[in-house]
Design goal:
two-stranded antiparallel sheet; elongated; 797 residues; two-stranded antiparallel ribbon; mainly alpha; disordered C terminus; 35 helices
Length: 797
């Protein structure tokens, strides 16, 4: 948007008067010399934006929205216009109407013209508010021009105002936009003659505008000392409270009007009058840093130790914002240097908390105590350490009476707080100054524990280099390695291990760093711990099960961690303290990939029990539940087939005390069980090979070169019906040179049981090849008493 000129376009047909500076009249003082202000110091609002006089700034952030709105409105007008030019007329009318609702922002020129401002205020004020202008812009209200009395008061035209009075014009008629009467407008603009005339004619000097400001407030804000005297001579209330309870003196202080302050103080204004927040004028100027006004108020008897609603003194206010000159003036005036606010914070505590080294140095030079504790038992050293202000910490440590190991209400020292806030420089300065590196804080946490919580290795390394104990335990038995594993910092974990941290240390619940890393799925830390001889399983106590890290990884669905643990020797059928196996954890949470991985690594789906009654977590989606059920059902069918195949092999084997093979149909119950147990014990590898040959007879591929060799698993096959009369009997052919198990009779007919195997529904977890030895159960389930072959798959275990 291009820059707009200051003055309105004279060619615009707008019923709004052009308000620049107050027009000269026969009774007005000569205008001040005009300063050369660049034309780009302000920007006129767009004609379709309503200007808020209370803010007096150009709402540039609304320009894009307003432009789009105006474009839509003018486009609609053009689209609906006819050939007789009505569209152009509507557009022109719309532009004029919207432009009447805009107001010119007050530029910095008006405030810089006032030579009565203090030098500090002229530097501080860059964009004045509505009270800082020596003239005021009267915008139209609902397309209605302002009253003629308001216009005359704005211009300072005594003759016109006299004429209006003779014509019995209403002198109390307020401007619709601001609610200001002609007397308030004249006082705001500094027209003494008009003010005198209106007061002589009986105008009320106690009226308020919409901001609850009276003529005296407006005159004080702009430094019109003569008008202040005129109003006070006509019995105006010098301590009248305006907006937020501010008196004329307070408003003059806010705007740095030195002469107005002197005038009001001379006329017995209350120097310590308080606003709605119980703040005095000295509080306000201590915040703004106007030392000229501070000095004037102190000379006028202002209370240097007055407290606001937060019990903060002017010295607190000056220290909080780093007003060095004001701090010096207040200290020279003997302000209470140990004053405490409602949080028991002293000025030194505020300076330390804010990191204001120069202010803290001045306070310490004036003998401020560095041992006073604020709320929570925090000393200035605690605050500086917690906020990471190393320069202030260094300054405080030079004080001989500073207790470097002082504790707050949570039993923490400055070193604890510095480690918690990850401040390397503060930690280094405290350690070099002799801070206790093994100090136990809340929960027996030491500085090294706090440093490991946020996983910043630089601070951890610094503490370790100063001799921190890497195996120190908290009240719950956690070591720094536990906390680093929780934070997930592999650099911190490795640094602690290099310094001698125990990789198998257990907390009070028996949790090890490896279990924490597995629960979080952090493969890098799992590998680091295993590379440093962390145990895969550790008993939780006498007669109890192990901590089972693989179960934690399965519960989280972290497949890479599961694979790493099993590759390192963990059992996929490990039972945790709750009696759950990894497969149950993964299935319960609906982790499809983890279920497939575990089944491929030798987990047994039959150990989950009846799948119809298997429950899932509420966190698992319907799609996850369906896919997990499909995988488990396929695995159960495959395991049932393998169980029956091994049973047939074992029942046809020759027991040690038998003369020859025992046929399945004629074998007794005890002979079958004995033969199966003996066979499984002695011929695990041969059973795997026999299963592979049985699968080959089903014309199902046995290998896939694309699969990695570590992903071992079983092909999920299940006979549609198992007929014992037509089952294939196997025997051990001891005369074979390869000592292989071979089928006695191989099926050739198409409808043999081996040709009625159902294809797998899912092959996500398939790896092909021989069945791993560890996947076979140590004790095979007991077959049903009625035997096999009834055709009911649900009867199989």
């Amino acid at each position: 948007m291009s820059e707009q000129p200051h003055d309105r376009d004279e060619t615009q047909d707008v019923q709004v008067e052009t308000w620049g500076e107050a027009l000269p009249s026969q009774n007005t003082a000569p205008a001040l010399p005009q300063l050369s202000i660049p034309t780009n110091t302000w920007q006129r609002p767009l004609p379709f934006e309503r200007s808020d006089y209370a803010e007096s700034v150009s709402p540039s952030d609304k320009s894009t929205h307003s432009m789009s709105m105006f474009s839509r409105m003018t486009a609609k007008s053009s689209a609906t216009g006819s050939s007789d030019g009505l569209g152009d007329q509507r557009k022109s009318w719309l532009t004029r109407k919207l432009s009447r609702r805009s107001a010119r922002p007050i530029s910095a020129e008006s405030i810089l013209r006032d030579q009565l401002l203090s030098p500090k205020s002229r530097k501080r004020i860059k964009m004045p508010g509505p009270l800082s202008a020596t003239e005021m812009y009267l915008q139209s209200h609902h397309n209605t021009p302002p009253p003629k009395t308001i216009v005359a008061a704005q211009r300072g035209d005594v003759a016109e105002m006299t004429s209006l009075i003779r014509r019995r014009a209403n002198m109390e008629q307020a401007h619709p936009g601001t609610g200001r009467t002609p007397l308030a407008v004249a006082a705001h603009c500094g027209h003494e003659g008009v003010v005198e005339l209106l007061l002589t004619e009986g105008s009320n000097s106690r009226t308020r505008d919409k901001s609850q400001l009276g003529p005296l407030h407006l005159a004080a804000a702009n430094g019109h000392c003569e008008i202040i005297d005129i109003l006070l001579d006509r019995e105006a209330d010098i301590n009248v409270a305006g907006h937020d309870g501010k008196t004329p003196l307070r408003i003059a202080c806010d705007h740095g009007q030195m002469n107005a302050i002197r005038t009001l103080v001379r006329r017995q204004a209350m120097v310590d009058a308080r606003d709605k927040q119980k703040r005095t004028s000295l509080h306000a100027v201590s915040d703004s840093g106007d030392e000229d006004v501070v000095g004037l108020l102190l000379q006028s008897g202002a209370n240097k130790d007055a407290k606001d609603f937060q019990m903060r003194s002017p010295l607190h206010c000056a220290c909080s914002v780093g007003r060095i000159d004001v701090v010096k003036m207040l200290l020279d005036a003997k302000a209470d240097i140990e004053a405490q606010d409602d949080t028991k914070m002293t000025p030194l505590g505020i300076a330390a908390q804010s990191g204001l080294k120069r202010v803290a140095e001045i306070l310490l030079q004036h003998k401020a105590s560095a041992s006073v504790k604020s709320q929570g038992g925090m000393t200035p050293l605690h605050w500086a350490s917690y906020q990471g202000h190393d320069e202030v910490v260094e300054l405080l440590l030079k004080r001989k009476k500073v207790d470097i190991d002082a504790r707050n209400d949570n039993n923490r020292t400055a070193l604890h707080l510095a480690a918690r806030s990850r401040s390397f420089g503060v930690i280094e300065k405290l350690l070099c100054a002799g801070a206790n590196i093994e100090a136990e804080g809340s929960g027996n946490y030491r500085p090294l524990h706090y440093a490991c919580v946020d996983a910043e290795y630089s601070e951890v390394s610094l503490l370790l280099s100063f001799g921190a104990n890497p195996n120190a335990k908290t009240l719950t038995g956690e070591t720094p390695l536990h906390l680093a594993a929780k934070a997930g910092s592999d650099a911190t974990v490795q640094g602690l291990i290099d310094r001698g941290a125990s990789v198998d240390s257990q907390d009070l619940l028996g949790t090890r760093p490896l279990v924490i890393a597995c629960s979080n799925g952090n493969l890098k830390i799992v590998q680091q711990l295993l590379d440093n001889d962390a145990k895969l399983n550790v008993s939780l106590g006498p007669g109890l099960t192990s901590d089972a890290p693989v179960c934690k990884a399965a519960a989280g669905g972290f497949v890479p961690v599961i694979q790493e643990l099993i590759h390192r020797g963990a059992s996929p059928r490990q039972v945790d303290s709750g009696g759950w196996i990894p497969l149950r954890h993964a299935a319960f949470m609906g982790h499809v990939s983890a279920v497939g991985c575990l089944l491929g690594k030798g987990a047994r789906a039959m150990e989950l029990g009846p799948l119809d009654n298997f429950s899932f977590s509420t966190a698992a989606s319907e799609d996850q539940i369906a896919r997990v059920r499909e995988l488990l059902n396929n695995a159960v069918r495959s395991e049932q087939f393998e169980y029956q195949h091994v049973t047939y092999l074992a029942s046809s084997a020759t027991p040690a005390n038998a003369d020859g093979p025992v046929e399945l149909q004629s074998a007794s119950r005890s002979q079958m069980e004995q033969g199966r147990s003996t066979f499984v014990e002695n011929h695990r590898a041969l059973i795997n090979e026999s299963l592979a040959e049985a699968r080959y007879q089903t014309r199902t591929p046995l290998s896939n070169p694309d699969l990695q060799p570590q992903y071992l698993g079983r092909h999920p096959l299940m006979p549609a019906a198992m007929d014992p009369d037509r089952a294939i009997n196997y025997t051990l052919n001891e005369s074979s040179s390869s000592n292989r198990i071979v089928p006695r009779t191989l099926p050739t007919e198409h409808n043999s049981p081996l040709h009625r195997f159902q294809p797998p529904l899912q092959q996500e977890y398939l790896s092909l090849g021989s069945l791993p030895q560890e996947s076979l159960p140590q004790e095979l389930p007991t077959p049903p008493s009625q035997g096999y072959g009834d055709g009911d798959v649900s009867e199989l275990p």
